[in-house]
From TrEMBL:
Keywords from the named record: Signal
Organism listed in the record: Actinacidiphila acididurans
Record's protein name: Extracellular solute-binding protein
The keyword Signal is annotated on this UniProt entry: yes
Key word Thylakoid present: no
């Protein structure tokens, strides 16, 4: 599963609703996964990603898009299912003919599905869907094999940056339009912010419920390191018991114990830093763009008070997202019908404006720098729609947006959540024990991670 924790990456309606009419004549016979082609050429396809009834706004939008699609494509019938692909039940559903014709996956899933031949090769059909070419190449590559064959399409994306409190920056004599871009600058700025007193913390980090390992991974990537590395024989091994891993933990230890800029309260998990930011007591922490509207809606913060900067170090940023793959049992007619649906709803620039309009009308955030899967004219269309319907302080995200093209996107490691649980211990100990043995913590964690990866 990409992103952490579950629910923290709520996809915005405008990204989910991107679509455009690409008329496509679809015909064929045969069936798979509960789909069929009728005598008159009508093809029925199953798809997932329909929002649950507990999300009535987005569910209504989804069903309205199904109706609009079927009106445009009278020979295609869409049967929607809730949820996304579950790795625990995927193989059983595929073998039993219960897997949808088009199914939502996270970015960590495609490589394994492709290697196991558990997704259809859609390369021969892509020329019929030209809007696909406006999606960022690095995102399309997630769904490709070593020979450049394509097995899926991106739907949305996110990457890590630095959320910061512009008000505290000003009070500390820092320029709120120039957030730190190196870890040395983060440390220096955190000391100045913490010096404001009154319970203000300069920089916050996680160390509990897998969030500590998640942030350790992000901080490794930012320094050009990794957490797991694939070997020449295809196996994976831990790759953080090294000078880069030492630098990550040493910086946190010194900020906590030498500088006093991280506060005394530790063992923090996801909601804690958002709450501190909403209360005006936190200067900076690593996060994704959608944390800012969450801070506003759930923790009473003012969106205008927050900025988003690039990930410090800038040598890599933890990235994630998801998209759609296609049942390997699909007939050509079903693949074309499913591609028509996915491009209509998720991957066509023609309805970017409509998606932003609907999101704004529903009170959902418009103007965040991500998700944004587009390049070229489609990227320009998104920028125009964001400007037209923005309900977020777009200018505050400029430092992040300007830096993003130059920072490599790096996906989560295999067995990410299990690895994060192991790395929580290292994060927790350097933040709660002044005499923590950094070398020993990394060595012990690497042995545990190697065991996890060997059991894949």
């Amino acid at each position: 599963m990409t992103g952490f924790p579950a629910g923290s990456r709520a996809r915005t309606a405008f990204a989910v609703a991107m679509a455009a009419g690409l008329a496509l004549a679809v015909s064929g016979c045969g069936s798979s996964s509960g789909s069929s082609a009728a005598a008159d050429g009508t093809v029925t396809i199953t798809v997932n990603d329909m929002p649950a009834k507990t999300d009535p706004v987005n569910r209504k939008i989804f069903l309205a898009d199904v109706s609009a699609f079927e009106k445009l494509h009278p020979k295609i019938k869409v049967v929607p299912h809730e949820g996304q692909m579950d790795p625990q039940t995927f193989a059983t559903k595929l073998a039993g003919g219960q897997l949808e014709n088009a199914f939502y996956v996270y970015y960590t899933d495609p490589a394994g599905l492709i290697a196991r031949h558990q997704a259809a090769d859609i390369t021969p059909y892509l020329s019929q869907f030209p809007a696909v070419n406006q999606v960022k190449p690095q995102l399309r590559k997630v769904f490709q094999d070593a020979n450049g064959h394509t097995y899926g399409l991106p739907e949305g994306n996110y990457s890590m940056g630095l959320v910061y409190n512009r008000v505290l920056f000003q009070q500390a004599g820092l320029d709120p339009d120039r957030p730190p871009t190196t870890w040395d600058e983060v440390r220096a700025d955190a000391k100045r912010i913490a010096a404001l007193g009154h319970g203000v913390v300069g920089y916050g980090d996680y160390s509990k419920s897998n969030t500590g390992g998640w942030h350790f991974t992000a901080e490794m990537y930012s320094r050009g390191g990794d957490v797991a590395k694939q070997q020449s024989d295809g196996t994976w091994k831990a790759d953080f018991d090294n000078t880069t891993g030492q630098a990550v933990l040493r910086q946190l230890h010194d900020m906590r114990w030498s500088d006093g800029s991280m506060g005394q309260r530790q063992l923090l998990e996801w909601a804690d830093l958002l709450q501190m930011m909403g209360a005006g007591k936190l200067g900076m922490y690593l996060a994704t763009a959608d944390n800012i509207p969450t801070i506003a809606s759930q923790y009473k913060g003012d969106p205008k008070d927050y900025g988003l900067g690039p990930i410090p170090g800038g040598r890599g940023t933890l990235a994630g997202g998801g998209g759609f793959m296609f049942n390997p049992k699909d007939t050509p007619a079903q693949i074309k019908a499913a591609l028509a649906w996915v491009t209509f709803k998720y991957e066509n620039p023609g309805r970017i404006d409509l998606g932003a309009q609907r999101a704004a009308r529903a009170g959902q955030p418009v103007g965040l720098p991500e998700p944004n899967i587009w390049t070229g004219a489609a990227a320009a269309a998104k920028a125009a729609a964001d400007k037209k319907y923005a309900n977020q302080p777009v200018a505050n995200y400029a430092p992040f947006e300007q830096s993003l093209p130059g920072i490599p996107l790096v996906l989560e490691p295999p067995k990410a959540q299990q690895i994060y649980a192991v790395l929580d211990t290292a994060m927790a100990k350097v933040l709660t024990q002044k005499d923590a043995d950094i070398d020993g913590l990394l060595s012990d964690a690497a042995k545990q991670v190697d065991s996890l990866l060997a059991a894949q």
